[in-house]
Amino acid sequence: MNESPNRPRAGLSRRDLLKAGGVALAATAAGPYVIGTRVAGAATPKPGGEFRFRGYTPPHFDPHLTASYTTMINLSFTHSRLLKHKAGPDVKPGTFEIVGDLAETWSQPDDKTYVFKLRKGVRWHKKPPLDGRELTAEDIKYTFDRFTTIKGNANQHMMATLAKTEVVDRYTVKFTLKEPDAFFLDFLANPMALCIIAREAVEKFTDLKKPEAVIGTGPWMLEGHEPKVRTTFVRNPDYFIKGLPYIQRIEGIDFNDPAARLAAFVTGQIDAGPEFPGMMIRRQDWKIIKHNRPKLRYVEFPSNVMSHAGMRTDKAPFGDIRVRRALSMAIDRKAILTATAEGVGVMNPPIPAGLISLAIPYDQLGDGLKWDAYNPTEAKRLLAAAGHASGFSTTLEYATYGSQEIIDAVQMAVKFWKDIAVEVKVVEKPYAAFFATAYQGKQDAMMFGPQFPALDPWNFMAQYLPDEPKNQSHVKDPVLADMILNTRRILDDKKRLQQINAIQKYIANQAYYVRFPSGVYIAALDPALENFAPNLGYDYGGRMMAAWWNK
Amino acid sequence: MLRKYFFKRLLVAIPSLVLASLIVFSLVRLLPGDVVVLMMEENQYADDIEAMRAKLGLNRPIYVQYFEWIGRALVGDLGESLYTRRPIAHDLLTRVPVSLELGAVAIFFAILLGIPIGIVSAIRQDTAHDYVARGGAILGLSVPGFWLGTLVVVLPAIYFKWSPSIQFTKLADNPWGHVTQFILPGLLLGIASAASIMRLTRTQLLEVLRQDYVRTAWSKGMSERVVVLKHSLKNALIPVVTVLGIQVAQVLSGTVIFESIFGLPGMGRLLFDAISERDYPVIQGINLVVVTTVVSVNLVVDVVYAYLDPRIRF
Amino acid sequence: MASHVVTVTPAGWPEAARRAGALRRTLTTLIRFTRRKPFGALGAVIILTLLLMALFAEWIAPYVYDQQIPGARLRPPGRDFLLGTDNVSRDIFSRIVYGARVTVTVSFATVFLGNLLAAAVGITSGYFRGRYDIAVQRVVDAWQAFPALVIILSLLAVLGPGMLNVILSLSILVAAAASRVIRSATLSVVENQYVEAARALGAGHPRIMLRHILPNVMATIVVITSIGLGGIILAESALSFLGYGVPPPHPSWGSMLSGSGRTYMYIAPWMAIWPGVAISLVVFAFNMLGDALRDVLDPRLRGSHGGSVK
Known about the structure:
Structural class of chain C: mainly alpha
Order of helices and strands of chain C: HHHHHHHHHHHHH
Helix content of chain C: over 70%
Number of domains of chain B: 2
CATH superfamily of chain C: MetI-like
Order of helices and strands of chain B: HHHHHHHHHHHHH
Low-confidence stretches of chain B: none
Largest sheet of chain C: none
CATH topology of chain C: MetI-like fold
CATH architecture of chain C: Orthogonal Bundle
Largest sheet of chain B: none
Number of helices of chain C: 13
Helix content of chain B: over 70%
Shape of chain C: globular
Number of strands of chain C: 0
Strand content of chain C: under 5%
Number of strands of chain B: 0
Distance between the termini of chain B: 11 Å
Largest interface: B-C, 66 and 58 residues
Mean pLDDT of chain B: 80
CATH architecture of the largest domain in chain B: Orthogonal Bundle
Distance between the termini of chain C: 14 Å
Oligomer: heterotrimer
Shape of chain B: globular
Number of helices of chain B: 13
């Protein structure tokens, strides 16, 4: 807030936000929103110092045996990938430009082949059994072979189109695909699965679950791990970009309770906002935080976590498009945003508005817009036309995820449906049970829950394919499936985006899911942290790499 | 005499422990079949249902399972966590002391608050002293612990930019910080127990004060202090000792909440996580340790009880 | 409240006179009780209010608990909304009133189930002693050696969330704690001469237990019941905090406080304060009433106050 106005801004402007979300929503008492991030000043970066954030205790550290974000966040400090997303103050949150990480250059000789030239002189952390050995193409092949063959890898679908990985020479690796896949590079760059690991570590420790097995080529090395207390990282002096990282030590402190997290942040025990998915604060806490740490820097951008209600379209009454549209029109989305996000949020097209370069601008959604607009009268009329003039009863399965927003949204939705005579009985399930059933489409009638916050469009479209486990609405629409599978084959970026837009319009018009709006995140940072900008996704390490302390 | 009683008590404590270990053991066996399926599917603890059953040891005769488990437990091997794949005994070794420290501080405060308030409230029954002391103690008990904890953590942070310790400090790193971090959660945890102890002290003391020998003492003109301390208190405190035994288990329950708020990596939090993850070997391991602790404490309580009240020895 | 426990009705009175007499005696008892135990009486009033709220929620509450009142979000307590509104624009007073129903259902059902079991175990064990006692006590020891929350959470993790499951698992908590206290009360009662006298007169075991021991440990049962009721309400709120409480749409005080109350405590403190006050007030009331009843009901204390209650 009190940053120099002359410095370039790179956050989203209010106008950008509105474009992204499409719908103007009144800012609340929390005040005007969107404050630009700050680019490093004239001063030269100062190495050293410690960055403390709210960390997470992972179940274990093997990225091929869990899909847990807690593991990925920790490994983002210690491991490299072939590609990564550009980070820094000039990156607009919600955009993900692909740049090289271990790969120096890459090329695509034909539709189904990718060749990567690796950086030379990349060394594994100086820890046994690797002890600083140089990374080679063999390591890349080993990683991808293990990723695609190991049992129990929930992320395996990301490499579904990969046919084989070959070592061309010490620094060159070649991927051959079964069919063209326009999203292949997105998967390589994403911070959620494909970090490069070493064979020796796997062989010595049988898997990579133990903290000792956390040996990567990343900017920091794992220093200590006390489960449920803290995980610490120390600068890797041999990191392949000379001089980086600047920050000497990273400490992720595991605060379990939201009240404790807030207290820790307010009293300066951590340097960035403590809420998921990274350095955020809850909007309702903003006032109290501003009051206590007036000099903090804030960046706002819409969340890519989108909740929706899925329904068994293979069963009555949800097979009837009028019923689905009625259920969607019964929901007052603005009221939900007001209740759960202090009124600051965005309406979501089928790809969350938070992914600003992928989501179709909301006002261009076309006919689908009608079914998102709150209109209980029309909803009732549609229901009557579908033969449910006196409504119907059904069930909705959900898990709270420990989140008050989800609890409130579900209760509100149930009330809105009650208003059009649809009696929805809520079945609350423990998270694990929900994940094994309703999240995989194994619910009786309806389900509600947030979707996986992917950074690529494929995840959000794939759930409309007939055999996908996350096809919670049991959509079997050959026209749509064709359109979706086609996007993978369109290698031209512009054309592909047009196709993705067409798909979003089609889905919205079919009302396969009742899409809920998302809030706008507030990232809160210590103002002395230079050359850092928050973004969506779990790549904490990647974003922190070039940051430094100006104090 | 007392030693003989102790051994006699020990002889009955052992069956208790065996019984408890059987309960611990059957907890996992009582799981409905679909939970085993869920464990496999949700958490990918195994590749197929047979492997999952084998992992839980469900595929062999039940008595073999029990003796194997208890045999390994006796030499300190509690198996491996399904979720973290770490040896459970190893994790417990760092977690148990944290909870025991917290519990000890809580019991200390419970006694420190409970007994004096109970005494005041009994000898001044139905006076302003009684109402204030008792009302205060019970008011403390009436506020949900997690809410007290929240306020204690958040209010000073907001108004004084200070918070009680919410990051765990190891004994080796900072002994002073290590000990002091237990004071606030221990006090809050102790309040609930203090009210029970206060109430029982008061009740028992009231009863004793009205018994004939005490009336005799009063009528002989002994001073109040002598009557209360010498003649009544000892007898009144006897049943209070039994409550302390019960409080140990309750305090260990309370650690689940306070460890979560105050960031203490104790057994309570481990247990809660294990339950969320359906990590039954860990639940089994924690239960066994807790049960052993509590049975031992009860044994001590029984012996102390007998020492204080010879009538009970039989 | 106390009257029907201790009033002895002389047989053979004409029905109407008997009833009038009973009513007068009840009133006198109540007045005396109030004068001697003002805190206890206050507790009784609070509990009566709780019961009325639970019974007549539909008539007392100005809104239905899930009604969203347009334009009335996060209103502080005031003329329009007595206790303010929450983030979903619902009237907090109405939710507290409906919440009383959840509180009453959970706590009374639990404490009834739990104490029934505890009394059966505690009295027989303290009375028969010997091998039976030892055997039973080993089971109770073993059972009690589990921290209550462990069993409750394990059960709920398997059974799933739901009000009935919360009640069932909480009653185990009550029974475990209560049976030992009842047993030790029984032990000291058994020592008394009148029990030995009854035995000498040839009374059977069931008769002695029901006629001589039960009335004499009733005070203990009443006290632990009252503490139990308070304890259950607190336990339910603790379960809510851990995410295993009574799930919505039931507006439970515990989840109002631990969920949305804690989430909005800085901008709308009343969302936490009122359910918190409701919980504390009721727990306090049960405890105070229990203590007062104990003082009044305990047969060994009765004489010292001139038999006022008798």
